Amino acid sequence: QLGFLIEIQPELENARCAMEAVEAESGREPSQGTPELASRAKSASRIELMPGGSRFNIYPGVFQKETEKFSQSMVYFDWNIEHLESIGIPLDEALSLLSEHDILLTRCPRWDSADDMRFAEISGIAFFCQEQTERKHGAPYDFIKMSAVAWAKGVADNNPFLLATGLNILSYQVWRGPQFREAFDQAQVATHRAARRLKKKYEELIADMSIQFQTDTDTGAKEQGDG
After folding, report:
1. pLDDT tens profile 135-173
2. Cα–chain-centroid distance for residue 165?
3. Mean pLDDT of 116-145
4. How far apart are CA 197 and CA 29, in angstroms?
5. What's residue 70's pLDDT?
6. Nearest CA-CA partner of 61 in 188, 189, 164
7. Roughly what angle, to the nearest 10 degrees, separates helices 141-156 and 193-226?
8. What own/partner pairs with CB < 8 Å and gap ≥ 24 does 184-191 have?
9. Are the C-beta atoms of 124 and 151 separated by less than 8 Å?
10. Whether the model pTM is above 0.85
């Protein structure tokens, strides 16, 4: 199981309660509900993400805080194409993620471990993309996706090294240059063989992705200059 509790709630009563909560949040009277609020309430009534306990208490001061922020943000996350595009997800990816998200929700009570993992990855991508819009040097999408996949696998495998790797890719802004990647590498303390293998793997992935990102950036700048 992941570090979330996936709780399916009774449809009618909880939809009503969720609707009232969203209306209260927006300052609307119950009679002034809109289709958008109703859609958010329906989503909230179907699934709720909550911190799960021991998996996020590995380093309580760091991971518990991150998980609570994640859970609070995702309960009312605006799952629609326009919003996914607005937080930097390419259109093709946004369409695919939204479709996967909705398909997974329809079969949530029958999830297997692969479904569990994929839902965490999709939610992580959406959460991290939204967070990065608030940063001066927001992460390119490919780095966000790498971060979310590492983070989700760290949660699923109860692996603190992978969990930290996923968060640190974004915290150290490794796409910005060698000095940022060097600081990231120093922070990745690998105390056993498996962690050392993961450290080497992510160092290589980040280096390769950084080269491609710089090439794309240079090409884009050149094309803009020629235009």
Report:
1. 999 999 999 999 999 998 888 888 889 989 999 999 999
2. 14
3. 93
4. 56
5. 67
6. 164
7. 160
8. 188/161, 188/164, 190/161
9. yes
10. no
Judged by phi (left if over 0) then psi (alpha if -120 to 50, else beta), residue 77 lies in beta
Q: What is the pLDDT of residue 182?
A: 94
* Region 33-58 average pLDDT: 41
82: left (phi over 0), alpha (psi -120 to 50) or beta: alpha
* Tally of CA atoms within 13 A in the half-sphere of 183 that contains its CB: 12
Residue 106 burial (C-beta neighbours within 10 Å; 0-12, 13-18, 19+): exposed
H-helix or E-strand spanning residue 126: helix 113-132
Largest CA distance in the chain: 60
Residue position matching structure tokens 């909705």: 102
Structure token digits, residue 2: 């992941």
Residues composing the chain? 227
Residue found under tokens 């009503």 = 16
